[in-house]
TrEMBL record, chain A:
Membrane-related topology note: Multi-pass membrane protein
Location relative to the cell: Cell inner membrane; Cell membrane
Highest taxon of source: Bacteria
Chief localization: membrane
Protein's recorded name: Amino acid ABC transporter permease
Membrane-crossing segments per the record: 20-45, 84-106, 191-210
Keyword Ribonucleoprotein on entry: no
ABC transmembrane type-1 domain: residues covered: 21-210
Family membership: Belongs to the binding-protein-dependent transport system permease family. HisMQ subfamily.
Length: 219, 272
């Protein structure tokens, strides 16, 4: 088969592509931050010895970990409004589902980081008379965070990839813009190749950073 | 559970008082009704086979382990566990612990802080001492344990004996009323034990009230006023250090000590 590659036409869509890239990165940052906050809350609550708080949260985490994020996205956009009687915009539905989905994984990373700290460290902080918050802030978290960073970066990489699912709800992310351009130009090969390349350019450095951090922690 | 501060009876000189303290982990009763008094400036050595409850008893003294019942008093702070099962609040526990210093078998230095930061941590975070002031105190304490030149080194660059001396300085920085040592030399290479014991000996000479869980019988005999021999969660025998170690009254004490007199590690520890 002979195919005439021609990327030139994409230049006239640079604004669309720019908007798509901005949506993709913006949603990644927003949902990563929100997910991290959700994850912290869930992790600390599930580490508390209060079953009444920890059990439902553990259940919630399992629900989000054991169902596909695409199903969650569609469920929150189409099904949740029926339940709560409030219409959600695609962007809001996407934000909620990606944040909660990310949060479910972040919480496990954070919980794992915290429990990996030697109980002797807790003892030493308590013996000095530290209260719970100071113990977390001064002793446990600084040590745990170091161990959490590589898996958190990896999760952020997945988070960015998952934003491509936004296109299903017609949120104008990178992939959705690609679909628009394709339907206008009938040139899927160049368009989707470029979309893939943009994802790669953003993500490749992130995975390298994660690799370096992991190597540094191994010492 | 209740706490009281100023009105605790000071009619006697006891710095530490345990009254009918009981603790069990699940079905296992680890402390069976222990009562103990340590006078101000007294040095008590807790000895006994592993599993005897001596470390648990020590951890109860600063409430790292909470007893099920009994009263624990250190200085003017009293924790009463006799009636009710409500746990003390985080704030009260912290205040109580701030007045006792504890040294652990595995040092438990904070690996993400330099030596001097370790020593400053308690005063700065808990007592809200100004950092420059805390730094001066910390330097003086490092001087005392002979490690002033290691102030800016990371803990993992130190030998075990040095780590333990930093841990002692860290505990002393809180200006504690009592010091608790939980097998402070058990994780050390034999040639490093002496430097740590020298610091403990110096504290005893300065009149610090101390409770030591130890396997160093010769040291216990030399430094402690009182030796308490525990087995299976009860105090089998206690009395003046030399008397208990040289001429124990109870057969169980004799049997335990015989492992040390023979110069070997206690075989009893393995099956206790």
């Amino acid at each position: 088969m002979h195919y005439e590659w021609s990327f030139g036409f994409l230049l006239q869509y640079s604004k669309l592509i720019g908007v798509g890239t901005a949506y993709t990165i913006g949603f990644t940052i927003l949902t990563a931050v929100a997910g991290f906050i959700v994850g912290c809350i869930v992790a600390i609550a599930s580490l508390s010895n209060i079953r009444l708080i920890s059990s439902p949260l553990v259940m919630l985490v399992e629900i989000f970990r054991c169902t596909p994020v695409l199903v969650q996205l569609v469920w929150i956009y189409y099904a949740l409004p029926v339940l709560i009687g409030v219409e959600l915009s695609p962007a809001v539905a996407a934000f909620i589902s990606l944040s909660l989905y990310g949060g479910a994984f972040y919480s496990e990373i954070i919980r794992g980081g915290i429990v990996s700290i030697d109980p002797g460290q807790w003892d030493a902080g308590r013996a000095l008379g530290m209260r719970r918050f100071d113990l977390m802030r001064r002793i446990v978290m600084p040590q745990a965070l170091k161990r959490m960073i590589p898996p958190l970066v990896n999760q952020a990489v997945l988070q960015l990839k998952n934003t491509s699912l936004l296109s299903v709800l017609a949120v104008p992310d990178l992939l959705y813009q690609g679909q628009l351009i394709t339907s206008a130009t009938y040139r899927p090969l160049e368009t989707y190749t470029m979309i893939a390349v943009i994802y790669f350019i953003i993500l490749f450095p992130m995975t390298r950073v994660a690799r370096v951090l992991e190597a540094r922690l191994a010492h | 559970m209740s706490t009281s501060e100023a009105n605790a009876p000071m009619s006697d000189a006891a710095m530490i008082e345990l009254i009918h303290v009981k603790k069990s982990f699940g079905a296992v009763s680890v402390l069976k009704d222990i009562s103990l008094r340590v006078p101000r400036g007294g040095v008590v050595a807790l000895i006994g086979p592993s599993g005897s409850g001596k470390s648990t008893l020590l951890r109860c003294l600063n409430l790292l382990t909470l007893p099920e019942s009994g009263v624990i008093r250190v200085g003017r702070s009293t924790m009463d566990f006799t009636n009710g099962h409500q746990l003390p609040r985080d704030k009260d526990l912290a205040a109580f612990r701030a007045r006792t210093g504890m040294v652990f078998q595995n040092f438990n230095l904070f690996p993400h802080m330099s030596v001097i930061r370790n020593v400053m941590e308690g005063p700065v975070t808990v007592l809200k001492v100004r950092p420059d002031e805390a730094r001066q105190t910390a330097l003086a304490l490092l001087d005392k344990v002979g490690l002033r030149d290691k102030a800016d080194v990371a803990p993992d660059k130190l030998s075990g004996g040095q780590k333990q001396r930093v841990a002692i300085a860290r505990a002393l920085a809180m200006k504690p009323e009592v010091m608790l040592f939980d097998e402070a030399t058990s994780a050390l290479d034999p040639e490093l034990v002496g430097e740590v014991l020298a610091v403990v000996r110096q504290l005893a000479a300065e009149g610090m009230t101390m409770v030591l869980v130890t396997h160093e019988m010769a040291f216990a005999r030399e430094v402690a006023d009182t030796v308490v021999f525990m087995r299976d969660g009860v105090v089998v025998e206690d009395g003046p250090a030399r008397q208990v170690i040289d001429t124990p009254r109870e057969a169980a004490t004799r049997a335990f000590l015989s492992h040390f007199h023979s110069g070997r590690l206690p075989a009893a520890a393995a099956n206790a």
